[in-house]
Amino acid sequence: MITIENLNFGYSEKRILSISHMEIKEKQHLMILGKSGSGKTTLLHILGGLLKPAQGKVLIDDTDLYQLSGSAMDKYRGQNIGLVFQKAHLISALTVKDNLLLAQYFSGIPQDKGRIKEVLDTLNLGEKLNSKVRQLSQGEQQRVTIARALLNKPRVLLADEPTASLDDDNANSVIQLLKEQAENNNASLIIATHDQRVKDAFDLQLNLNEQ
Amino acid sequence: MNLFLLSWKYIKDKPLNTFLNVLLMGLGIAIILVLLILNSQLEENLSKNKRGIDLVVGAKGSPLQLILANVYHIDFPTGNIKLDEAKALTRNRQVKSAIPLALGDNYQGFRIVGTNHDYTKLYEATLSEGALWKYNLECTIGSNVAMQLGLKVGDVFFGAHGLSDTDLDHDEASYKVVGILEPSNTALDNLILTNIESIWQVHDHSAEEGEEAEHSNEPVLGSAYETGLPEGGPDAEITSMLIQFRSAMGAVTMPRMINSNTNMQAASPAFETQRLFSLMGIGVNMIKSFAYIIIVIAGLSIFISLYNALKDRKYDLAIMRSLGASKSKLFVHVIFEGIIITTIGGVLGFILGHGLVEFLTGLYEKSDAIGISGMVLVKGEFYVLLISVGVGVLASILPAFSAYRTDISKVLAQE
């Protein structure tokens, strides 16, 4: 489902990483492992359509990501790629509901409050619908970003260091949650992490330290 | 959710900052609007009142005072002129028409003006009720006089000496209202019009006391109620004459002739009002510059707060991009924020400006006489509101451009 061909990308001028071919099939999950500075965030951004690589192709299904024009790429990203970051980057001027509405608005799909409620309910956030982001705990904010990433039923769910700032219990439960939610939504999950605690969660691994 | 709503929610999230920016913008716009409203109404009313009058002839003194007293009825007269001299002047070939005025009395602050029917024709006034005056001590009153004092046709009142309402009453002779004029938005609205002889009769105590019995019951037809100057004795006086020339040549020769050869003074309303405006213009321009400075500061303040906020918001912007927002959407989002603030400021300024004029005219009793109100739209107001939108665009264009260029990957990588 996700195919990488002849990818060359430089995290810094010294380190050029190349992946000649790699394929992630439907319902397969990938763990990208690497120390900080190994280029895993860069790779994740390339897969997420946020950063054009120096060379190579990224195909999601049959769509060649970097052949899309600027705003078509933005739309495609909004509709097909869900992103979860280490910190919960929510828009603090807005309520939880508005944050999610924004994801629907920007990706150009119809704004559906029923779907928002549904996603929040599966993450036990149903009561927080009209809360301001600032009033939520860190954990709740993290779950809202997961809700936002899943809202548009993406094909791919990308998570960058989702466990870095969590304790052991929470780290594992967030990985389980992401996996569960990805499977419920038929999305492929790709996690980039240097967290030793969760590295064995998936069978398919890409270790950037070895390159 | 849409871009406008998104910008609005950001604005609402910073109420104090928004309040300050809106207030600055509103004050600037309000000051400009106040000046605009006052200036344009003043100009319109001054030019409306002086139309058809080429020259005002009266007693020597300040020419501006002569104009203000006899054309606009807001200042005190410079004094009186001899009826004979005035009559001699009307025989000049250059004079097409001459309307005599006799001032000096008031009723409840409204001026009683002795004149003839030509004066109402000058302003194309029409009657709403009754008739124009014919007999001495009959009067026709302006619409505003009737409304404010509740006078009706047939009412009787005593005039008071002087031009302000605190002076002593003339309780020897009473005026009788015979007609009320339609509103004309000119000086006539605030005047009580009668024959010149009525004014003389009220003032001429010594002559009257002896002949009172003869006068009191039998009304005397005015000697020149329709046009021309009345008949009077050698000592008879009037206050001024409003003169219309036969040709432009009159404007060249008459004022000089009057000013150097007679005891009278000639002043041109066009010239004097222009002089008045150029004097006021200095002050108006200074206040206007001050207002523009406030607007520039408001724009700067909006620019600075947007630009500073951008540092905190670069994650927000990157997230929006990652959610599918195109670069141009972010640009418009930031521009909207600037425009919303300045537009609210503009609307606030609009309300403040008109409210302030209305409030001030309520405080200042003469404003009715000059015909100024806050409840009218004047030319140029539209442009002022356009300015406020323009300031919003200008203040937000740099921050918007910087939002447009947000490098998503770079920002999101800086955890």
Could you please describe the fold and organization of this structure?
The complex is a heterodimer of chains A (211) and B (415). Chain A has 211 residues and is an alpha/beta fold. Chain A has a single domain (2-210), classed as P-loop containing nucleotide triphosphate hydrolases (Rossmann fold, 3-Layer(aba) Sandwich), CATH 3.40.50. Chain A contains 6 helices and 9 strands; from the N terminus they run βββαββαβαααβαββ. Chain A has a 5-stranded parallel β-sheet with strand order 6-7-8-3-9, sandwiched between helices. In chain A, helix 3 packs parallel to helix 5. Chain A is globular. The relative contact order of chain A is 0.20. The mean pLDDT of chain A is 87. By secondary structure, chain B is α+β, with helices and mostly antiparallel strands. Chain B folds into 2 domains: 3-46 and 276-413, no CATH class; 55-267, no CATH class. Chain B has 14 helices and 12 strands. Chain B has helices at residues 3-13, 15-50, 63-70, 83-90, 118-122, 143-149, 196-203, 205-217, 248-261, 269-322, 327-363, 367-370, 381-404, 408-413; strands at 55-59, 81-82, 95-107, 110-114, 127-130, 138-141, 156-161, 169-181, 191-194, 237-238, 240-245, 264-267. In chain B, the strands form 2 sheets. A 6-stranded mixed beta barrel of chain B has the order 3-4-9-6-8-7. In chain B, strands 2-10 form a two-stranded antiparallel sheet. In chain B, strand 7 (156-161) and strand 8 (169-181) form a beta hairpin. In chain B, 43% of the residues are buried. The model of chain B is unreliable at 206-215 (pLDDT under 50). Chain A binds chain B through residues 41-42, 45, 48, 50-51, 70-71, 74-75, 77-79, 83, 85-87, 89-94, 98, 101-108, 111, 148, 160-161, and chain B through 1-2, 6, 9-10, 12-13, 315-316, 318-329, 408-409, 412-413, 415. Chain B: Residues 18-199 form the MacB-like periplasmic core domain. Chain B: This is ABC transporter permease. Chain B: The chain crosses the membrane at residues 20-38, 290-310, 330-352, 382-404. Chain B: It is found in: Cell membrane. Chain B: It is a multi-pass membrane protein. Chain A: It comes from Roseivirga echinicomitans.
